[in-house]
Amino acid sequence: MEQKVHSFIKKHELIRPGQTVLAAVSGGPDSMALLHYFCAIKEEYQLQLHVVSIDHGLRGEDSYEDLAYVKRMCEQWNVEFTGTSVDVPSYKSMEKMGTQETARKLRYDFFKEMMDEKNIDVLALGHHGDDQAETMMMQMVRNATPESIHGIPVRRAFGRGEIIRPFLNVTKDEIIHYLKKHQVEFRVDVSNEETDYTRNAFRKHVIPYFRQQNPKFSQHMQRLSERLRDDQEYIKEQAKEVLKTMDFSSKEERCVRFSIQTFKTFPLALQRSAFHLILNYLYVDQADDISYLHEEMFMDLISEQKSNATMDFPRGLKIIRAYDSVTLTFRIDEDIEPLFKTLQIGETIQLPDGSLLQADWTDRPEEEGTYVYLCDSHHVKFPLIVRTRMNGDRIRVRGMNGSKKVKDIFIDQKIPSDSRNSWPLVTDSNGDVLWLIGLKKGGEYIRKPSGKWLRLKYENKADK
């Protein structure tokens, strides 16, 4: 076993000479083998070795004796030791978490404290190849996306340094053989025999069957894990090119917007990977309750013919399609207050979004443009009204016979449905719609009128 672990460490560059190593040791076979192994290579690598052991308070006197045993062995082998106890039941009750989830959080929180306190470079954990096989099989059962099937990482950033797992290429049987060979005693956690926890059930009933079919099943799963991580890392890097075409808001608002047409120019594999990168950004780290079904729902949304659609994801995330635009956001807009303001000549009013609308007289009708409205003042009854749309609103669009529904103009212009109720329009006091701002103009427009012209000028807040 020693040679296999040595080669694995070298292949993945898990430790370097002169580093400070913190070994997490519970007293069980895996961690005792880890401790013995590091004691054996300590001089060769010139390592500073520290051991941490945690009593989770879940098995009464037995868990305390585990910690005491590790302490005795560290004294015997001349290794610096730190032990602590954590109150899992109390924290579990307070935070409404599961037992295993709570124990893991408290355990890793203490590991991080120890790394800071003792300037630790790497935290070594005793996970082995059978753990890897169990983890990957559990991930496959729970999910069907490649992003969710990655196993236990050989190394990852943690605290001020990183976590390493040098035993991932050896089996439990090899570890037991190693302990017997070196006459190292270990403690047995009887709760590992219970099948109430999913992992234990996989360990006792699922993995043995696969190992009967292939004695090297655990090694194969480790290689698969490494291959999947390498492939996913490459695809993820390529998918970052997709993200460059998107608009990311600040993390306070947590909002992403992109064009469907642009998004679909990328290969399907990159589209899917980009979707998960977006979720990692929005959720900070991808939610466990996101499954392949959510991915399929998203892909259907951008492929279907509907111009407007909304989809609800876990934890309040909304995905909104409006024609070519897709927005992913946690922000829930409050009900929009209807806009209704009067506007007299010489006044400038501010709209709810901060934009400005000004009314005055002019004798230069050539000034008209997208955001400037001109009209023969003889056919307008004052004061003007600036408001949001109402059911049944129609406008006599210049250059057209008859009138057209404001609702139909929004559809023709592909205005997102969530923007229509806040879009400002201007009427005279008779209720005739003069201007659907920025979209369509009504009212009389005579080339050579007598008298003054009414001029309305709209200034978007983004242009101010």
Structure explained in plain terms:
39% of the residues lie in helices and 21% in strands. The protein is of the alpha+beta class and 464 residues long. The protein has 3 domains: 2-229, Rossmann fold; 245-329, Uridine Diphospho-n-acetylenolpyruvylglucosamine Reductase, domain 3; 340-463, no CATH class. The strands form 5 sheets. It has a 6-stranded mixed β-sheet, sandwiched between helices. Helix 2 links the parallel strand 1 and strand 2 (48-55). Helix 4 packs across helix 5. The longest helix has 27 residues, at 217-243. The protein starts with a helix and ends in a 5-residue tail after the last strand. The model has no long low-confidence stretch (mean pLDDT 87).
